[in-house]
Amino acid sequence: MKETPCPASCCEQRCDTVKLTRRDLVAATGLGVSGTLLQQVYAAPSGPQDKAYPSLKIADLDSLKPDVPVAFNYPDETSPAVLIRLRAAALGGVGPGNSVVAFSQLCTHKGCPVSYRPERKLMICPCHWSTFDPAKSGQMVIGQASQALPQIQLRVQGNAIYAEGVTGLIFGRHTNML
Ligand code: FES
Fold this sequence. Notes:
CATH architecture of the largest domain: 3-layer Sandwich
Strand order of the largest sheet: 7-8-9-10
Strand content: 25-35%
Bound molecules: FE2/S2 (inorganic) cluster
């Protein structure tokens, strides 16, 4: 197996070295295998994480009302995020019926603050109308953005909900932990 450095000219992120076999390269260049392998080989990482994520208490479970967002900042004070108790189970959800999720509030297109629209059960950006599904790990439904909203990893202990990590890269950052 040959080690190939990340093609750093494609972005400003310092990716880890990618291990490729001859078979990987042949397949990835389109000789009979779909682009899925390319996506796996060069999937954008969330950036190097030299520091551990903080554990931050966000709210008490029994204080959450369905479809009423709670704003907080994570993993630091300059990074707005939102906690939502949905009315049904969600991917990555915790708490009652796995319905509690949290996301960065910064749109992955150009960083405008998205907001939760309960009547549509979606998170919508007011700048260019990118729309994200909080029940499906922030997957983009429509719009200008090309990546899902970064999802905040949650943990429940007793009645308390803690933020303890982020999946995906927060807009405008080379690494989530500055
Ligand atoms: S900044 Fe959100 S869609 Fe453009």
